[in-house]
Design a protein that fits this description.
Blueprint lengths: L1 E7 L6 H11 L2 H5 L6 H9 L1 E6 L5 E2 L2 E2 L7 E9 L3 H19 L8 E9 L4 E3 L2 E3 L1 H9 L3 H5 L3 E3 L6 E3 L5 E5 L2 E5 L2 H17 L1
Helix pairs in contact: 1-4, 3-5
Length: 202
């Protein structure tokens, strides 16, 4: 689902901090702010996130090579499925910038952080040796709950398509006699808002 490349100017992060930052950048819990995505779906997402850290020998910024005492510079490239890029960009930029700013807190040097969120075209992500679309990733997240769905104990989120079980912690909404289930509260709120807009236009 995501490939994250972090470029850090030489000396900006020591080895321990570099590892902690990479782990946080790759944490699905941090990415989703623990918004209630089901554990099995979180595990699938986590298996699809990779983080690589680069420390270039030379870094030029503002038309000159950065000196060892320059402000820490970071460049992050986050590759996500193309159809998700727009919806994810604001949050990805905020959470990656916050992690890097916190990593140098107390150093007395304000970091320079640039973030690029890049959309990978449909079919341009490969998992287990074959291309996977954004819908294919949603299907992978739903696989742990397919038997529950077949038995009527789970439903498909009408907004994002993820299958969610109807248990005591389910995020649901009943409209016009139909019970809808959602992967998270954000999907429920967006779905309800869309229904209100549709009714207002009718």
């Amino acid at each position: 689902m995501m490939f994250i490349e972090l470029f850090a100017s030489p000396g900006a992060l020591d080895a321990d901090t570099r590892e902690r930052v990479a782990e946080r950048l790759g944490s699905v819990w941090e990415l989703t702010e623990g918004e209630g995505i089901l554990p099995e779906a979180m595990a699938v997402l986590g298996s699809l996130v990779q983080v690589v850290v680069h420390e270039p020998v030379t870094w030029v910024g503002s038309e000159r090579a950065l000196a060892p005492d320059s402000a820490p510079h970071f460049m992050i490239r986050v590759h996500v499925p193309g159809p998700w890029r727009k919806a994810m960009s604001d949050h990805v930029v905020a959470y990656t910038t916050a992690i890097l700013t916190e990593s140098v807190a107390g150093s007395g040097r304000e970091p320079v952080v640039h973030v690029h969120v890049l959309g990978v075209p449909e079919g341009g992500i490969g998992v287990a040796g074959k291309p996977v679309t954004s819908d294919g990733i949603v299907e992978m997240m739903s696989e742990p709950y397919e038997q529950d769905r077949a038995d009527g104990r789970a439903v498909k989120d009408p907004l994002c398509g993820v299958t969610v079980p109807l248990n005591e912690s389910a995020v649901t909404l009943e409209l016009d006699g139909t019970l809808y289930g959602f992967c998270c509260a954000d999907c429920r709120e967006e779905f309800a808002a869309k229904r209100r807009r549709d009714r207002a236009r009718a």
